[in-house]
Each structure stands twice: as C-alpha cells, then as structure tokens.
C-alpha cells in the first residue's frame, strides 16, 4: 500500500467507527415491528425442557402490576415451584414512551423477590442478582434463570 | 469462548493445533501460513462470544496499523510535529474508544447524580478484553513514537499481535517489544509444547477445582444480607474470595502462557506467588505483573517516576493508582481500591521506609494479607456502600464477632481454604525439589493426565462460569 494511503485508511477507520457506534446506540433503543410471538419464539426455543411453563397475561399483570391496555402483547413464563425464581417475560408495548413505567414495575418486582429470598435461599437470590432486564425501544425483556444470558442473546437476535 | 469450556477444549483447541502443526509447521513451514492460521483462529475465538464487537477490534487494528505507518513515515522524513500529532491522535483514538465503551455510563451516572440531570445511560455491553487489547495497542504506539521499536509493516503480524487468542481477553498484557521477534521468528519444539500443555492443565485446575469452588462459598455469603453477617462469616467469605480471585486470574494467566508456549510463543509471567508478599510494594511486584509494569513504563516513568521531589513522586504514585483502579472498572469502589493501594504504597515508602524491614517477616506477611483482603472487599463489592458495609461486618459492626452460621461455613470450607492457601505458596515446589527429579518427572506423566481428567469432571458438572477478569 502506498504511504499516502495510510492517512486515508485512518480517516476511513474513524468514519467506520462513528457509523458503528451510531448503529450500536440506535439499535439499543430501536425496538421492533415484529409481533411479540415472533420475538419470543427463538427465546422459548432456548428454554430448557421443563424449565418454565407458560402463564397468562393476567398472571403477568398481577405479578408485575402492569396496565395491560398499554401492552400490544406479552409472553410470560415461570417455574411453578415456589422455591424457584426462574422467570421469563417479554412485553411489546403500544407506545415506547410507556417503557420506563414498565421497567420500573419490573425493577420493583425484582427488589421484592430479592427481599423474599435473600436470607433463606442464597442460590435463588444469586439468580435474581444476575437477572437481566432490558428495554429496547418498545420491547421489554426480563429474565431470571441460570441460562439468562443465552435467553437474552436469543432475544437480541430476534429483534 | 472460555478456556474452561468443552467447546474450547474439545473442538476449538484440537482443531487449531491440528491446523497449526499439520498445515503450518509440518507441510509449509511458513511463518505467514502459521500466522494466518493463528489469526483466523483468534478471530473465530473472539467472534464466538462477541459477534458484533469483532468489528470494533478489526477497526482498531486497521487504524493503529495505519497510525504506526504514518508516525514512522513522518519521523523518517523529519516531520517531527506531524509525528507528534499522529501520536496524539492515535492515543486519543484508543483512549476514546476505551473511554466510550467502558466509562460513558459511569460519567452519565455521576453527571445525573450531581446535577440532577436525566441523561439516559447508553447501557452498551462492554466489549470483552477491550482494556487488555487497548493497552497492548498503546504499548506499540508509545514505543514506536519514542523510538524503542521499529514500525510493523506487515498487517498480518500486527493483527496477530493484537488478537492472539491465548492472551486476547484477559491478558497477560503483552508489550509489543516483548513479542516483536516472536511474531516472525518463533520456533516450536516438543519441550515448549509439553511445557505449555502442563501449564495449561495447571491453570485449568486452578480455575475449575479451586477458584469456582471457593467462589461458590463467597457468592453464598454475598447473597446474605450484609447486616446479618458476623465477623467470622465475613472473614470466611473474603478469605474465599481472596483465594478465588488469585486462582481464577493466575489460572487464566497459566492457561494463556501455556497456550502461547504450545504455539511457540513465550509470554512473560503475570504472577509470582503474591500471597507470600511481606509488604504491599512486594505484593504489587508479584500480582498482575504485566499491568503494573505497563503503568510503570507508560505512566509512572513518563511522569517523572521517583526521580522528582517527594511531593511530585507522591502525586505520580496517586495518579498511577487512581488509573489502576479505574482500569479495573467504572465504579467508585474501584477508584477507592486503587487509591487505597496508592496511599499504602506511599505510606510504606515515605513513613515506614527502612523501619519496615525491622518488623519480623511473619508479622509483615500477616499485615500485608490483612490489607490485601480489605482491598478485595472494595474490589468485589457491587458498589461502594456494599463494600463499606461488608468492611463494617468484618470488624463486628453488623452482627457481632461470631455466630453458628460463621462457624458452620468455616468448618465446612476449611479443607478447601487450606488446600487453596497451600497451593498459593511455592511450598509444594520446594517439596518436589527435594525428591529425585527423575521420579518427579515420571510421576508428572501420570499426574497431569489425571488432573486433566478431574478438570473435565468438574467442567461437565458446572454451569457457565466465566473468569472474573473478563469484566475488565
């Protein structure tokens, strides 16, 4: 490569870096147009057999205190053993502006769960400590599970 | 990809070795082919866990390769100002990328906290290994600008230096000048390969058998309300963490050095039995040596080192340790952890001075370990408040000095703590040295495969358990 091309390569790298960072930041806040079932499908395929069972929208509303009229759709799975805190929740909202109130509701729920399990079930508490809560535009993802990272990866890919 | 995973051990490593030795060494004997194989393997290794951020690493490689060429060109043609401008640009680029991905949200949190602003955090995941490979790149750029090395004109060699998978994501931080010749002139040998294998197995055992076992105890204690911890429980927990972080990180370094050796490289040591240190100064000569020497060479000495007047040396030390703390994480507990060591080192240097040597060695060792363990509280806590509450518990300020839970935890984990403490010292090496080395070698032939088999048993029975230093 000619010596004169190296400064050009630097400029191209900086431009590509700026584009890359812009893409990353925008994709973090972008959300999706897909129905919630399409987003949830690969995530559910990542669930281990018998890990969690499907719950109704009303169960989710009761557990998290959601106003269901603000949600376009949701998927809620949990382990029905009371000593197991594993849960998976994906909510697609009608309006991305409601995402913060849904996030706060889930954060409050996690804090309550931690208080419940803190002193007598350290392993479950550790799972709650590592739980993943993420809002991407109009879609909220929450998961407490030993394979939460893998489920989250599937969610990010599905968006 | 994690070294202690079945994907790495059963698929990635055997395939890479097969290609490297089959095609690179036996068939072509060509260093370019060998480097190509290693580079491709390294990119796959990184992309396995970071499919998006591999682009960031590739951009860093291209930019810094070009920057190196421009600096060299400017200096060769006597344009010193242009060389300096390029150097500043390259440093700014690298620190800017690191700062953006690692510290942007820390800055946002603090701005929001201080000014009551509501700037939304970026919440971007940290690109794995970015702190390590950025420091490697900076060592190249700084050494090139100061004329200590020649420019690397081969993009393949440069890309391999940055991305070489054994030390890519958690060190040791390899300075370019230490590996420059090996990139094109290394020789593989059976002795290097067998040494690498045994070193790798030792590291794997440290991680899977000791670090993870001790880590499970500390995680359990961390999950308990800190207000209910007796001093005995808190000390048991931090003793477990003290050994966990050593075996976790030194285990990774052993594996990295071992893997490097299997491919004909020689990386500098990163640990030298830090827990036998008899002072904090001594501890930092033995712990994460590659990071300490990086800060010494590229920050402390350029600031004037210890050749200045005392106030300036104190300032230099505080800057270095503030940066060391920040390097480890974007949180105030890491900053405090760094400053804690800076203050201790200044105290040893200027207050204790020669008097330190007059204190009996066992007392010095005990005091050093107590301070190091207090330091690990700052390091391991989720935040500053958590750290201070844990320290309070360690001194009986939460739930008294002892309780049944603490006694139970200590008694049930005493064996692993003692094994860990023993393995953290060079005593076993000294014992082995007393035997006939011929028999020791024969015993190792049996011991290492057994140790590896045990590691596999531990590996298949465990869930995903990444290395602690991955988050830096």
Which characteristics define this entry?
heterodimer, A: 159 residues, alpha+beta, 2 domains, five-stranded antiparallel β-sheet, 6 helices, 5 strands, elongated, B: 472 residues, mainly alpha, 20 helices, 0% strand
Describe this structure in words.
- The complex is a heterodimer of chains A (159) and B (472).
- By secondary structure, chain A is an alpha+beta fold.
- Chain A folds into 2 domains: 1-30; 32-158, no CATH class.
- In chain A, 51% of the residues lie in helices and 18% in strands.
- Chain A contains 6 helices and 5 strands, in the order H-H-E-H-E-E-H-H-E-E-H.
- Chain A has a 5-stranded antiparallel β-sheet with strand order 1-2-3-5-4, with helices on both faces.
- In chain A, helix 2 (36-46) packs antiparallel against helix 6 (148-158) and helix 4 runs antiparallel to helix 5.
- The longest helix of chain A is centred in the first third of the chain and has 24 residues, at 5-28.
- Chain A starts with a helix and ends with a helix.
- With 472 residues, chain B is mainly alpha-helical.
- Chain B has 2 domains: 6-185, no CATH class; 192-471, no CATH class.
- In chain B, helix 3 (54-76) packs parallel to helix 5.
- The two termini of chain B are 16 Å apart.
């Amino acid at each position: 490569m000619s010596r004169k091309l190296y400064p050009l390569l630097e400029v191209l790298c900086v431009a590509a870096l700026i584009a890359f960072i812009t893409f990353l930041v925008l994709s973090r806040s972008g959300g999706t147009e897909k129905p919630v079932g399409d987003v949830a499908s690969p995530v559910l395929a990542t669930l281990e057999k018998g890990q969690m069972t499907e719950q109704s929208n009303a169960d989710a509303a009761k557990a998290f205190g959601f106003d269901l009229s603000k949600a376009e759709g949701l998927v809620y799975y949990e382990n029905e053993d009371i000593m197991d805190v594993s849960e998976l929740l994906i909510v697609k909202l009608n309006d991305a502006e409601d995402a913060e109130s849904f996030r706060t509701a889930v954060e409050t729920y996690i804090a309550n769960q931690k208080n419940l399990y803190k002193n007598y079930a350290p392993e479950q508490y550790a799972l709650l400590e590592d739980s993943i809560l993420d809002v991407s535009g109009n879609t909220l993802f929450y998961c407490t599970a030993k394979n939460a990272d893998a489920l989250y990866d599937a969610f990010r890919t599905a968006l | 990809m994690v070294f202690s995973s079945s994907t790495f051990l059963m698929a990635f490593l055997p395939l890479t070795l097969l290609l490297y030795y089959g095609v690179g060494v036996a068939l072509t004997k060509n260093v370019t082919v060998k480097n190509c194989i290693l580079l491709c393997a390294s990119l796959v290794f990184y992309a396995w866990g970071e499919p998006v951020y591999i682009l960031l690493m590739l951009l860093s490689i291209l930019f810094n390769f070009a920057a190196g060429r421009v600096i060299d060109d400017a200096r060769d043609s006597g344009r010193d100002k242009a060389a300096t401008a390029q150097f500043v640009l390259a440093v700014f680029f690298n620190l800017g990328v690191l700062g953006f991905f690692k510290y942007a949200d820390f800055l946002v949190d603090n701005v929001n906290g201080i000014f009551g602003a509501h700037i939304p955090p970026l919440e971007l995941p940290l690109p794995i290994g970015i702190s390590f490979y950025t420091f490697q790149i900076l060592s190249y750029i700084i050494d090139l600008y100061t004329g200590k090395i020649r420019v690397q004109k081969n993009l393949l060699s440069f890309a391999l230096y940055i991305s070489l998978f054994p030390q890519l994501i958690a060190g040791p931080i390899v300075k370019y000048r230490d590996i420059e010749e090996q990139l094109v002139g290394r020789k593989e040998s059976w002795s290097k390969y067998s040494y690498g294998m045994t070193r790798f197995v030792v590291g794997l055992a440290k991680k899977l058998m000791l670090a993870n076992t001790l880590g499970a105890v500390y995680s359990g204690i961390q999950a308990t309300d800190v207000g209910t911890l007796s001093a005995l429980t808190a000390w048991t927990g931090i003793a477990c963490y003290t050994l966990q972080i050593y075996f976790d990180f030194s285990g990774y370094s052993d594996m990295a050095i071992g893997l490097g050796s299997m491919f004909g490289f020689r990386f500098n040591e990163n640990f030298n039995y830090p827990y036998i240190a008899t002072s904090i100064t001594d501890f930092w000569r033995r712990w994460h040596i590659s990071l300490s020497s990086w800060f010494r060479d590229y920050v402390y000495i350029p600031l004037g080192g210890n050749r200045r007047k005392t106030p300036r040396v104190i300032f230099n030390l505080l800057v270095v340790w503030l940066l060391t703390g920040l390097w480890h994480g974007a949180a105030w507990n890491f900053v405090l952890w760094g400053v804690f060591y800076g203050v201790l080192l200044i105290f040893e240097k200027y207050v204790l001075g020669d008097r330190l040597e007059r204190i009996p060695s066992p007392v010095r060792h005990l005091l050093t370990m107590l301070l190091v363990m207090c330091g690990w509280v700052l390091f391991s806590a989720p935040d500053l408040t958590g750290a201070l509450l844990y320290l309070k518990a360690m001194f009986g300020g939460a739930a008294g000095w002892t309780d049944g839970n603490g006694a139970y935890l200590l008694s049930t984990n005493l064996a692993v703590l003692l094994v860990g403490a023993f393995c953290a010292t060079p005593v076993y090496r000294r014992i082995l040295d007393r035997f006939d080395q011929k028999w020791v070698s024969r015993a190792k032939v049996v011991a290492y495969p057994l140790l590896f088999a045990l590691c596999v048993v531990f590996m298949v029975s465990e869930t995903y358990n990444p290395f602690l230093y991955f988050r830096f």
